[in-house]
């Protein structure tokens, strides 16, 4: 039997398994999976990969951007005896029997690729459409930084490339001459109709306008697919797209009529479908061995990001002499220092590197700095691919513009990646620019995410030291940096920790809890309360917004008769979190000061604080009022 | 003096004023503004608009996508004696003197366009780059729906069109043959360097690949600009882009050297710059009158969205007979009913209309339904433009994918628009699909936004009636719809209200507060607590998550010795809000149950509830534990 014949037979098995497993799950997308059977069959043969050791760092990688088609990939994995498991030691071979557990609570085979469950074949979670190519771009950059020669493939659905992130990702791949191979599954149908009617798009013209090389094949012709994969692999210094024309529901009549998207078959229909597929079989298939990488390693790149962390305390921190500095600038210095001792640190910026001060890193380590331009969705997704390559990406923009990448950020978190986002110009201090430039939802949004660390810098020492915390902490993290020069609150060697806080002063009247810039405003209010009213308050710098140091905060409040006043320059996030901790314990009274309406422009910071009800006087009045109640 | 001469002279005035006002503000982007002086000069002459009555609904409109260049537009407005004010009655002419108040707290001239402050020239807030063309698309669709013939212009910066939203917006304009005129300010420099080096992009090729007509001009040649605007205005049934090659910092040497982006001049530099500009003047300028629309009206379209609301109680609600139905389906019915009585309702969907049930509306009112395909950023931005046309857009997708449009959503809110977003498939009930399809951050995120209304449907009656509330409420609103069929909790004529809640049962043990699907789980827990433990709890359906009915909730808790237990199937949002209200008053104890880690796939809803610690048994145990403490 020729290789082509064997691959056709395999495709039938993948089809049969896709139909069976989605039926067993009572959910899933068999019609989408069937459109990919020959593509996956050819790709799994052409890829150099290592089913017995999916952690092999030298294996070619596949990002399945159209995550809902994952059954066909699971089927191919089972047919090749792919190992699954959370670690090499706990690995076992995926069986065809396992496939029937698709989407079950006890199964690692989620409805969409989910690497944290123990399917290390996948580097990143996908399923929120439009994101895969950015991940793949990041993996190619990861190869470049780490000197790996593995190939990165990405399979995308035709409807999802309407997502603007694809535009960003295509342009990015072109700029950086990334040798990524995108296989576009042109089956012509989206969930709700014909793709070209839903939104016309000329794939070839658009790709060529972005200087991609474009090949086109019949996506059910294995010979054409193999030839195209060979040609694509020969291309150097350019991304390549293979437009694969396919049939949604290929081989199964019931899955072709009326575009039954995301509809599994009934048991009776399954038998009919399997019968149809089997009539297409011409021979029993022998087992084809995959092509393997030249060498083997047993570590998953994702697990390799453990980092040397510089001893920042020993560094010359000239800024400490100046008495004040913008946290974003101190962050820029620290990032460069980190880059010196840790070659796994990579930095991405969205055309504001001279504002975020990532220019310092860029100039020192140009090969580890990636300008993403004004295209945050792709930037955050590329960060995911870099993190999945065992690198530690710091993703930078104004906090306000990171909102453009929240969907991608959530997927990075779900992928369990060690990744950092850094928002500068946060809060209301970019006052004269007005609300379109102010990050205000970032605090409640980021604090709501599971397992994340959120740190807010109240001075340059924190801005500097938080880079060290970010390097030492394995997981996703959001750092919040301020634009203005701010007086130093801390000595250069002060130690901070994830989950920590600092009590700046202790008193018995009210416990003020704040973070970032507002700590300075609260501090001034505290001084005036003491001087003018004889009231001594406690003041907590809750720099670790998540996890929040509730013990320290409530401990302070225990000495202020349970009175807590939170102050923040963003939509309420700290306040509700402190309230939650206090209300869970009982016996406290918490008042929350936060931005509660849209700001506007103001030339002076004190004006915008007044406008938002967050001035020294406002805090003073509110604290006093709490004592009267 | 010829018209061209007069326009050149005007451009110099705009340049001088741009330099002066940014210097007065000590902030802003004079170099960007200067690159636009001739474009704005020509456009303000070619537009048919009405400076004495900016509310005139028949005036051509300009969306300034590169919002940071706004000083040049303010300058042109002042030169034309444009009226500003929050209403026609409060209007007064903008003066050149006013320009010097740029970015001041007391000034309506924010650092970026901000229509809510009383500058009705602008329809939408801009400044978060990349969003303007979507707004403009929405305005053109608004023309179409409302039968207006005004022209819609959009000025974009060259760096910002790297934002993937531009890709989405360009494709959308092409599909719908929108006669939008995009003027691309190709000054070649972004904030941190040369645009083509930061991220290469072939504007002409990319636009043509998306079937746009493309013109190219010297952006400082008024004759070429006028000719291009004339040609663009003649094009029918297609979007047109005018590539205008410009010089950043045109006319002022100090603003051309080294790309001083966002840097105002010092007073000494201002005088030098003004001197340079004045040497370019050849004559004193006469005042050119703008071309006016044929007719005049005195209402701003934005203010016209007052809506007839159907008497839903009088409608035949067949679903009420069935005992259960998915809220999303009832929503689909209601939306169609609303469409029948209110011609201002328009609906947008991102290729999931058969899941969100907007198909009902689409089939009934195809001319008011806009398929946006898988491109949520543009969809949310188009919604902004439609709302600014006095229409009432309902923006639809899975709640999870609306995250892709959060940046645009925030700008819609800042614009003060009457706009609705509707997320379906929310929470953890899309269980077999897994976390990539679950909207979990939507509740804390949306609840954090100022002035928004957030409603979560706990049954089909609510899913139906909330459409009525959305129609009656002027402002931004987020509706949360569930996928599964859910038993009815309410009779078909039950009335709900923004800021309301429903007490489903009263007891003395614990007050359970929940929303959406979890109300059913909590209800079962309540029944079992009573039956098995003899404990009677209060159960509140807090369907209005924002504003939250804290009086009712705390009132119930007053009768359960202050014990409150919140239950929600999303990252914590209701819990912290209840905690905040309780802790502000004092004397309560609140425990929060929410999704606190990433879910995975599960075939049965009860499995995923257990996995997330939100099962009936979990609630039961937690409520009991509260009584022991």
Describe this structure in words.
Two copies of one chain form a homodimer. By secondary structure, chain A is of the alpha/beta class. In chain A, the strands form six sheets. Chain A has a seven-stranded mixed sheet with strand order 12-11-13-14-16-15-21, sandwiched between helices. In chain A, α7 (164-175) links the parallel β4 and β5. The mean pLDDT of chain A is 94. At the A-B interface, α7, α9, α14, α16 and α18 of A face α7, α9, α14, α16 and α18 of B.
Task: Give short descriptive properties of this protein.
homodimer, 7-stranded mixed β-sheet, 5-stranded parallel β-sheet, 25 helices, 40% helix
Brief digest:
The structure is a homodimer of 629-residue chains. The first copy, chain A, has 629 residues and is α/β, with parallel strands linked by helices.
